[in-house]
Amino acid sequence: MTTSRELHLITRPPGTLPVPGELAMVEVPVRAPGPGEAVVRNLFMAIDPGLLLRMRSIEGEEPEFDLGGPPWGHAIGEVVESAAPGLRPGDLVLHRLAWREYAVADAEQFQVLDRDLYPSVSNHLSSAVVAYVGLHQIELRPGDTVLVSSAAGAVGSMAGQFARVWGAGRVIGSVGSPEKVEFVTKTLGFDEAFDYHDGWPDLGGIDVYYDTVGSWQLEAAIGAMNPHGRIVLCGGTEQQHTGQAYGIRNMQLAIEKRLTLQGFTTDDHLDLFPRFDREFSALVANGDVVLAETIVEGGLDQLIPAVQAQLEGAYLGKVLLRF
Ligand SMILES: NC(=O)c1ccc[n+]([C@@H]2O[C@H](COP(=O)([O-])OP(=O)(O)OC[C@H]3O[C@@H](n4cnc5c(N)ncnc54)[C@H](OP(=O)(O)O)[C@@H]3O)[C@@H](O)[C@H]2O)c1
């Protein structure tokens, strides 16, 4: 009988990092699929900053992960057995049943992917769609100066590259290390980048800020915006990592400069996905954008060390765990 290892959430991390005892590795038999179900062997799962946010309760918010089972998370797997009409062994599927080696569930939970769309099956877990949808929330004008935070991260690395191919005049990345400065300028084609640990440089006026971090970087960006500038509010990594809310102190400037601050959630824009798939796969195939990803080897045993390393800013691009 095939068995599957799963990581179960036992208690909630009190602080920023998970500590021993909060998660347990559990071995379970892989049951045969019931009518309408399929068995999927997971190949990759996404590791993203939201994992910790969803484990913890933050400032009165309900945590999204239940105790006593594997948390949800995005994964890609291959169908190994099916009792569902729409799924065949060998199909590549995207789903939310991560944190386990095998998933057995109703076929509705699995979305069949086109294996040939991207160079690697792992690319289907890219956060490029988040960058794409976010930039569609504002008007990007030819020649705009665009600033992207966490520019070497999963979303930021793609937001800066989309801005470049869509006609921005100058694309600047804010990052957390000299290696990342080199990566976003030399590999991803950003015009400039700076390590925010060295202070916030004079950027000479920003038209569009793609914000993945929030907190003090958002405040600094508001200070650097040109009049009528546009800010895409995508994420709040700083708060996710520290668990601390941050009060933006210069909102008055947003009024004086007539800024637009536009938040969004990717899931509200599923209508853009087919267009995204077409445009993005063509950009990748033509070599116009680099799909940056770090693959962590070693399966579930490496999940928590990888989450910790991500918090320390150790990785480039989208972080994926290979099962
Ligand atoms: N709106 C939506 O629909 C949507 C969808 C997906 C994700 N998001 C959000 O977008 C944000 C970015 O997601 P991602 O997957 O692309 O993450 P990411 O940027 O790849 O996250 C890892 C990076 O965060 C940075 N970081 C670590 N600690 C930090 C801190 N204390 N302050 C600031 N930055 C820190 C590090 O980069 P540096 O070394 O450069 O600091 C690290 O490499 C997250 O908040 C995520 O929840 C939103």
Q: Can you describe what's shown?
A:
With 323 residues, this protein is of the alpha/beta class. It has two domains: 3-126 and 291-322, Quinone Oxidoreductase, Chain A, domain 1; 129-267, 3-Layer(aba) Sandwich (Rossmann fold). 25% of the residues lie in helices and 27% in strands. The strands form three sheets. Strands 3, 4, 5, 6, 7, 14 and 15 form a seven-stranded mixed β-sheet that branches. The chain has a six-stranded parallel β-sheet with strand order 10-9-8-11-12-13, sandwiched between helices. A two-stranded antiparallel sheet has the order 1-2. The longest helix has 13 residues, at 273-285. It is globular. 41% of the residues are buried. The mean pLDDT is 93. The structure holds NADP nicotinamide-adenine-dinucleotide phosphate.
Layout of helices and strands:
Blueprint: E1 3-9, E2 23-29, E3 37-47, H1 50-55, E4 75-82, E5 92-95, E6 102-106, E7 111-112, H2 128-135, E8 145-149, H3 154-165, E9 170-175, H4 178-187, E10 192-195, E11 206-211, H5 215-224, E12 225-233, H6 237-242, H7 251-256, E13 260-263, H8 273-285, E14 293-296, H9 303-311, E15 318-322
Parallel strand pairs: 8-9, 8-11, 9-10, 11-12, 12-13, 14-15
Antiparallel strand pairs: 1-2, 3-4, 3-6, 3-15, 4-5, 5-7
Helix pairs in contact: 2-3, 2-8
